[in-house]
Amino acid sequence: MSQNTIEHQVENASGGEFERTPVPQSKLKSWKSFIGMYAGEHAAGTEFMIGPLFLTAGVSAFDLIVGLLIGNLLAILSWRFLTAEIAVKNRLTLYFQLEKICGKKLVTGYNLANGILFCFLAGSMITVSATAVGIPFDMPMPKLTDTMPNGLTWIIIVILIGAVISIIAAKGYDTVTKAANWMSPFIVIAFIASGIVALNQLGVNSFSDFWNIWGEGSEPFPGQTKFTFWHVVIWSWFANGAMHVGMSDLSVFRFAKRARAGWASAAGMYVGHYMAWIAAALLYAVYLKSPEALAFLNNGDAPPVAPGPLANNAIGVFGIIAVVLAGWTTANPTIYRAGLAFQAILPKLSTAKVTIIAGTVATIAGLFPAFAMKLLGFVALYGFILAPFGAVIVFEHFFHKKAGIVKNYAEKTNLSFNKSVFWAWAISFGLFYFISVQFDVFLSFVTLPAWLLCGVLFLIFSRYTQKN
């Protein structure tokens, strides 16, 4: 039997998505495929929210420009030397890889939490797209303090957008990457155009004028956290912590031919998380000079952050379309990831069906603006919760021989609940969450210590339990 015939049978058995089998050689993709996906996903809907939210946090020019430069580099290195390195060795989804280590019962709880958190993130991007679609209908825009839907028009628009995005995501990995490749150039151009127009509207004629937009920083808006240089560095590093150090993007890079495809994440970090965040912040800086925004500030309220109107003010219809597509290209792969998480819990259902379920949950979440308006805090929280599980995979992969432990222990011993993993995560999560709450420490600051502690405890507990 030829290798192609074997791989064809594997593909048919797995439904074409290889949820529980290694990706065969014939389905591997070049680094170019990942550039489009990362640029599309990270120069996207979250950027229209996060850029303005940095301004509400009172960042200075140095903190923003230099802090983002360093933080995004650390994220790229994490993708390249951790996520992609492990992904091309095993070619498994995060969920199946964890099942081999943790056992079926334990990983079910993780998958449920992972899937739901990803649905909430995708929901916030549906919210972003809805702020653009609602402009022609004169829809009231959500405020920074809003939590509930603000009208029937909002509900209808969110449901329609969610349905379309879910259907695209349910088509599978190839469709998700193709959609990103088609849309990302348009979105990137829109961000560049928005930034240039905003600079003109702000009267920027020199680098010093540009620097003075943020200057030495300011007090945060009501209800927002003050961001310093280290807030920007650490937050931007772990904004996608669940995806790189948390290993979620094993599900993406398992399709890569070589680990160097991890460098493609730079297209997302420096086009999206650098240029696009700054461009979106400039759009909000223009809005803050408007009579409407000044009225909010004079009343002691934070002006709303609605990406649709901000982009429309800069580049018109082109901006509206860009915001719709930007929300789409983030929600699409996020719903796809959530679908894989749910599929690991419900293996008898096809990936398409569980992705529709994930899309439905995301759409419901999108009805509530709070997920988008509190995006800085929410992203920090979901990274903190999920990232330590990635440490289990990383520490086992690189140190299992030195630690003297068996790799994929749950699979080899038919263990359904690996207590070593559970207690490593529970102790690291509980300890550092307590520190964050008790001493008012920004959650992103304790993500790395929690990740490291979880990995070390896993090796120690595994050595002890396996020895006994």
From TrEMBL:
Please give the start and end residues of each transmembrane region.
Answer: 64-88, 109-132, 152-170, 182-207, 227-246, 267-290, 310-331, 352-372, 378-399, 420-436, 442-461
Is Cell membrane one of the keywords UniProt gives this record?
A: no
Q: Which Gene3D superfamilies match?
A: Hydantoin permease
Instruction: Locate the region Disordered.
Output: 1-22
| UniProt key word Transmembrane helix | yes
Q: Which InterPro entries does this UniProt record tie to the protein?
A: CodB
UniProt KW keywords:
Membrane, Transmembrane, Transmembrane helix
Protein name as annotated: Purine-cytosine permease
> Which species is this record about?
Flavivirga amylovorans
